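Hello forum,

I keep getting stuck at the same step: I have a sequence, I want structure tokens, and every attempt I make locally crashes halfway through. Rather than fight my setup again tonight, could one of you with a working pipeline run this one for me? It's a single chain of 258 residues.
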Amino acid sequence: MTAVATAPADTEARTTRRFRPADVWRIVRLHAVNPSIFFGVPWIILGAAWAISVIIALIITSAGAPHEDVREGMRYSWAVISPQWYLVVVGVQAIAYTFSFALGFGTTRRDYWLGTALMFVFVAVEMAAGIATLVLIEQATGGWWVGAAMFDSLWYGQQGWLVDFYTAFAMQMLVLFIGASVTTIYMRWRMRGMLVLMFSVIALLLGFIAVVTLSGWWPQVMAWFVDIGIVGVFTLILGLAVVSAVTGYLVIRRATPR
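Reply #2:
Ran it on my machine without issues. Output:
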């Protein structure tokens, strides 16, 4: 009788430990306590870059330069990716400022990481959708009527809204998870872990460059990137974001909040 009575309770407890959507959503709400960090400041940075780009284009076109020439020259500006550096910091802060607090009210590390990842997805989706839409608006208005090329630059504006959305989404996810996963490494191993990480990344990059250079493979490498195209390149970037997310989860399971 005792075994029969307690079995459902034990099963329910194990199921509860496996997945708790309410706790995952609670972490999303925790991150959204100050929404401007995730949804406001990145757009302020983009807006400032846009204003500067329009002013520069207006000055150049006022001097008599054709709009088409101005737009072509501005297509190589990196202003459209200006929020990426800030989003790395957002990834760092998302973990550093909330991890200890979340564990304090009983959230598991797994649910905390899932909630954080879900918040990152929300940020990446809204930014990617906004950027891809602004590319279309910029193209339709001839560069905001002054020949500016802020969003319709680099790889954007070449293969349509969906590709622009996908590439922007992949980039946002990468920088957010890089910031978050690096923070978990610092929490787990402190400065020793950061130094090992830094030197390991540098050694891998230098090793790759040395092997490709000494083997004379640079033409093949560049040809391969051309073959896979923009979507292929950003699929690799999204894959790196997934690797960063998994690494961060594995490390945070043993991280010690202080």
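The radius of gyration is 23 Å. If your local run keeps crashing, start a new thread with the error log.
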